[in-house]
């Protein structure tokens, strides 16, 4: 956490916060002296002019202290907010460059908690640090010295009250610090259950699992609340204990001071000043302990933030001479050369010895059973994961040696789950091509068989809700396909994108795709489950358990490949293979 603060603070603002703090502390420390003089020299000697003068002085010093405190709070808070802002930006730009592996490792909900809740913890403790952590020790020492100078004998009271305070604070910290640390993890859990509930709300309802999910959330919520309540209950003991010790100290001072005044070895003003110093000493001690309670919680948050900031993406650009400039003038081609890939921790390879090649204008179709490795294979092309062995060549260049930026520019992909962003049809299409004209957008929508429903919904300015929730699954797929083809690319990838389309639309769409100029110059990769979708591809890869068990055209495979034949037959039986 201190590392985070050091990196992100503006030094001039911190210096100003400290300066105003010192002014405030000096004012606070000077006030008891004025009060003492006012009593001993003004009230005791009935000197009205002196009383007025001292009263005025008191007012000015108090006002100065007040203004300085306000200025300190201003600089401390603005600095803490700015650190928070910078941290959120740093975390977000880090996360956006993570590969799928890092997302799996951290978990989406934890990444959200780290960007929001953990940053707020850091902000809160930074404000406290810039106020109390400096104010408390200065005040403690200065008020101690001043009190000692006033009346050394009275300071013996602190020999009892300060150790008592220290023991109470240590006892409270011992119980509360581990609780604070676990609160952050429990916040993660609440977010996870909440997110799953929100994204899966339709599934939950259709399976009548509302109560089950409600219970799951209640459990996480209860767990969080119980830990927080426990922590706050323990902290709440701090204030009565402090008040008790403060009152006890004051009683001790009055009792001892009373004797000293009776012996004529001390004046009343001195006693009042001493009592103010005593309050300042004990309050400073309290502030300091509050800071010590807050720091471990913020430390835990700082650690969680640093874990994200220090995490390197497992997919990195090549460096130095290894990094090659992507030659955009080369004709499109895609080649897998002895490619192996395993997910971390998995026993078996998700892909084993994949070899194929396709050139400009060709369509590669990938078919195979569930979990056979189709999506994994296409995700390796834009390097969402890095291959363990072998090479994947895009336009003849090893994709591991091109910068991810250039690689992603050369590839346009529709993921298995269509993702749309909140905005309009136009803004979603401009994700594919930032300067796309209306004509270009309509043309892409036409190819993706989306023109009709977009027109019905109000045209290019029609609203797209979060996740495209105001469109059907098939419509979302078609919009995602339109966004993919509006981008000019060397490789177009459609990962099971046609599955939500009816047979007729599927056939029309693929026919229209073939006529598109961009697509004609590129390699298209289509992952599909239906024989009818893959039948007219130039090259079909049949996948089974991470291996390509057959490759060729529909006619070749039907004649020679047993797995392919089984898929064809099963689909004919289901009346699903009209084109087979
Ligand atoms: N992120 C991941 N971490 C670990 N294992 C994974 C991950 N994603 C997929 N797998 C595993 O890799 C294998 C291949 O998965 P993949 O998603 O590529 O299959 P698929 O052929 O696309 O399946 P489907 O047709 O159901 O989409 C499966 O056994 C799956 O369990």
Automatic annotation (TrEMBL):
<keyword id="KW-1133">Transmembrane helix</keyword>
<feature type="transmembrane region" description="Helical">
    <location>
        <begin position="58"/>
        <end position="76"/>
    </location>
</feature>
<dbReference type="InterPro" id="IPR039421">
    <property type="entry name" value="Type_1_exporter"/>
</dbReference>
<keyword id="KW-0812">Transmembrane</keyword>
<feature type="transmembrane region" description="Helical">
    <location>
        <begin position="154"/>
        <end position="177"/>
    </location>
</feature>
<dbReference type="Pfam" id="PF00664">
    <property type="entry name" value="ABC_membrane"/>
</dbReference>
<keyword id="KW-1003">Cell membrane</keyword>
<dbReference type="GO" id="GO:0015421">
    <property type="term" value="F:ABC-type oligopeptide transporter activity"/>
</dbReference>
<keyword id="KW-0813">Transport</keyword>
<keyword id="KW-0067">ATP-binding</keyword>
<dbReference type="InterPro" id="IPR017871">
    <property type="entry name" value="ABC_transporter-like_CS"/>
</dbReference>
<dbReference type="GO" id="GO:0016887">
    <property type="term" value="F:ATP hydrolysis activity"/>
</dbReference>
<feature type="domain" description="ABC transmembrane type-1">
    <location>
        <begin position="15"/>
        <end position="297"/>
    </location>
</feature>
<dbReference type="InterPro" id="IPR036640">
    <property type="entry name" value="ABC1_TM_sf"/>
</dbReference>
<dbReference type="InterPro" id="IPR003439">
    <property type="entry name" value="ABC_transporter-like_ATP-bd"/>
</dbReference>
<feature type="transmembrane region" description="Helical">
    <location>
        <begin position="234"/>
        <end position="257"/>
    </location>
</feature>
<keyword id="KW-0472">Membrane</keyword>
<dbReference type="Pfam" id="PF00005">
    <property type="entry name" value="ABC_tran"/>
</dbReference>
<feature type="transmembrane region" description="Helical">
    <location>
        <begin position="130"/>
        <end position="148"/>
    </location>
</feature>
<dbReference type="GO" id="GO:0005524">
    <property type="term" value="F:ATP binding"/>
</dbReference>
<dbReference type="GO" id="GO:0005886">
    <property type="term" value="C:plasma membrane"/>
</dbReference>
<feature type="domain" description="ABC transporter">
    <location>
        <begin position="334"/>
        <end position="570"/>
    </location>
</feature>
<dbReference type="InterPro" id="IPR003593">
    <property type="entry name" value="AAA+_ATPase"/>
</dbReference>
<dbReference type="InterPro" id="IPR027417">
    <property type="entry name" value="P-loop_NTPase"/>
</dbReference>
<protein>
    <submittedName>
        <fullName>ABC transporter</fullName>
    </submittedName>
</protein>
<feature type="transmembrane region" description="Helical">
    <location>
        <begin position="277"/>
        <end position="295"/>
    </location>
</feature>
<dbReference type="InterPro" id="IPR011527">
    <property type="entry name" value="ABC1_TM_dom"/>
</dbReference>
<keyword id="KW-0547">Nucleotide-binding</keyword>
């Amino acid at each position: 956490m201190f590392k985070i603060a050091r990196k992100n603070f503006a030094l001039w603002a911190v210096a100003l916060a400290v300066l105003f703090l010192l002014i405030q502390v000096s004012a606070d420390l000077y006030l008891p002296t004025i009060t003492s003089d006012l009593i001993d020299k003004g009230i005791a000697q009935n000197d009205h002019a002196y009383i007025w003068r001292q009263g005025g002085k008191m007012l000015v010093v108090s006002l100065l202290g007040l203004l300085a405190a306000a200025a300190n709070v201003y600089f401390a808070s603005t600095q803490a907010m700015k650190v928070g802002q910078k941290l959120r930006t740093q975390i977000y730009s880090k996360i956006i460059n993570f590969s799928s592996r890092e997302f799996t490792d951290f978990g989406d909900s934890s990444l959200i908690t780290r960007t929001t809740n953990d940053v707020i913890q850091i902000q809160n403790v930074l404000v406290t640090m810039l106020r109390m952590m400096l104010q408390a020790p200065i005040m403690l020492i200065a008020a101690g010295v001043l009190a000692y100078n006033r009346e050394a004998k009275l300071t013996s009271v602190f020999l009892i009250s300060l150790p008592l305070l220290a023991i109470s604070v240590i006892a409270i910290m011992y119980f509360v610090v581990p609780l604070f640390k676990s609160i952050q993890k429990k916040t993660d859990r609440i977010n996870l259950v909440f997110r799953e509930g929100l994204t899966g709300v339709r599934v939950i309802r259709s399976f009548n699992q509302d109560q089950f999910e409600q219970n799951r959330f209640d459990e996480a919520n209860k767990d969080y609340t119980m830990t927080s309540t426990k922590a706050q209950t323990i902290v709440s003991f701090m204030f009565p204990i402090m008040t008790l010790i403060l009152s006890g100290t004051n009683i001790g001072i009055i009792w001892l001071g009373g004797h000293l005044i009776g012996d004529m070895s001390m004046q009343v003003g001195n006693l009042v000043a001493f009592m103010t110093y005593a309050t300042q000493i004990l309050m400073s001690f309290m502030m300091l302990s509050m800071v010590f309670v807050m720091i471990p919680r913020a430390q835990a948050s700082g650690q969680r933030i640093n874990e994200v900031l220090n995490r390197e993406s497992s997919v990195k650009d090549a460096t130095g001479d290894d990094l090659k400039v992507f030659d955009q003038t080369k004709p499109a081609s895609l080649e897998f050369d002895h490619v192996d890939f395993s997910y971390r921790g998995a026993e078996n390879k998700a892909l084993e010895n994949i070899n194929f090649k396709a050139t400009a204008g060709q369509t590669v179709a990938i078919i195979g059973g569930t979990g056979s490795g189709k999506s994994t294979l296409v995700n390796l092309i834009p390097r969402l994961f890095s291959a363990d062995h072998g090479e994947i060549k895009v336009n003849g260049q090893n994709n591991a040696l091109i910068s991810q930026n250039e690689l992603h520019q050369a590839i346009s992909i529709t993921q298995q789950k269509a993702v749309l962003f909140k905005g309009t049809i136009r803004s979603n299409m401009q994700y594919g091509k930032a300067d796309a004209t209306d004509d270009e957008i309509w043309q892409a929508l036409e190819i993706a068989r989306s023109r009709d429903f977009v027109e019905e919904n109000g045209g290019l300015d029609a609203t797209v809700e979060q996740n495209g929730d105001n469109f059907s699954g098939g419509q979302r797929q078609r919009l995602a396909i339109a966004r993919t083809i509006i981008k000019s690319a060397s490789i177009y990838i459609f990962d099971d994108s046609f599955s939500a389309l009816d047979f007729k639309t599927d056939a029309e769409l693929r026919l229209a795709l073939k006529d598109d100029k961009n697509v004609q110059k590129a390699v298209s990769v289509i992952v599909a489950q239906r024989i009818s979708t893959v039948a007219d591809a130039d090259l079909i890869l049949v996948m089974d358990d991470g291996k390509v068990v057959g490759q060729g055209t529909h006619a070749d495979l039907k004649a020679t490949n047993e797995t392919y034949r089984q898929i064809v037959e099963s689909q004919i039986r289901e009346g699903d293979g009209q084109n087979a």
